[in-house]
Amino acid sequence: MKVIDLPAAFAAAPTAPGAAEFVAEFVAGPCRVGVVARGQGASDGAWERHDGGDELLVIMRGRAIFTITRLDGATEVVEVGPAQALLIPRGAAHTATVLDEVHVFFVSPSEGNHEWSTTPGAS
Q1: Of these four, 7, 8, 13, 120, which has the most CB atoms within 10 Å of its CB?
Q2: CA 39 to CA 114: how far, in whole Å?
Q3: pLDDT tens sequence across 24-43
Q4: CA-based max dimension of the chain
């Protein structure tokens, strides 16, 4: 068993695009757990997709708009805020625009993760 001190994890969380603080890795299970913090207005054209399973995002602080493109090509745009959770289906590409500084607790698959950018010159 591991107790995760979320305030301490968010205090240590990097704010750079694409960076996350992984607070737990479960060897026996197919997931990783972590936190990510982003400043207001953050949107770097970064997208990600998890082919290894669904991703759960719990918004602890702030607000963000997520754009999610499902495998069937349907696109959804949803705003989420504090005490709300977003379950992103396996294989759905997603990106976010931060409206207010956001702190997100996440559970993601350990394998099958892909990241890319639509911003010219970004990696």
Answers
A1: 13
A2: 23
A3: 555 446 788 888 888 877 66
A4: 43
